[in-house]
Amino acid sequence: MTRLQTLLIWCVSAALPCTLAGCGDGGPPRYHISGVVTFDGQPVPAGAISFIPVGETDVPRGPGFCRFTEGNYESRSGRSPGSGPYRVLIDGYDGVPFEVKLGEEIEEHPMGKPIFPTHIVEVDLPPEHGGSFDFEIPATESGRLRARR
After folding, report:
1. How far apart are CA 147 and CA 68, in angstroms?
2. Hey, what CATH class is 33-148 in?
3. How many CA atoms lie within 13 A of 68 on its CB side?
4. DSSP, res 13
């Protein structure tokens, strides 16, 4: 038997018990959701969405997270949430990357400048297969951002 065959047999026999026992992600299912994020009626060029569990959810492993472009998000591109109540945090950016030199360090901003402060909303995600959730951030949110600067 060659070393490669021995290594292959060892890898399969080491992985098999874990597979049969359900190692890995396991636990309650996460549900893929998708949708559109708009600001003042227009798709947000770039951003990120966090789904933070509030109270009882069927996923005890922490928050869901995904990035989006041109307003479209798909939880499969990050970490999908489970069902139950969630606080959703949405950060939106202009999509124009830039860098800032801080002494010898360069700080990169690949999503660009923020166009509104973190938008927070609470939703109750259903226990079925997931679905589509659109988020509309009102134009009044940008005034709060300008006032902070």
Report:
1. 26
2. mainly beta
3. 27
4. H
Judge contact between 90 and 119, C-beta under 8 A: yes
Buried b (16+ CB within 10 A) or exposed e, 39-75: beeeebbbbbbbbbbeeebbbeeebbbbebeebebeb
**Alpha-carbon gap, residue 80 to 29, rounded angstroms:** 9
Is residue 52 within 8 Å of residue 89, measured between CB atoms? yes
Residue 93 and residue 46 in contact, taking contact as beta carbons nearer than 8 Å: yes
Instruction: Enter the pTM of the model.
Output: 0.70
Mean pLDDT along residues 49-71: 79
Return the domain boundaries, the chain: 33-148
Q: What is the 3-state secondary structure (H, E, C) of 68-79?
A: EECCEEEHHHCE
- Beta-bridged to residue 66, according to DSSP, are 49
> Distance between CA 136 and CA 128 in Å, rounded?
23
Mean pLDDT, range 106-116, rounded to an integer: 94
pLDDT, averaged across the chain? 75
Is residue 72 scored above 80 in pLDDT?
yes
Residues 6+ apart with CB under 8 A from 129: 31, 32
Size of the chain in residues: 149
How much of the chain exceeds pLDDT 90, in percent? 40
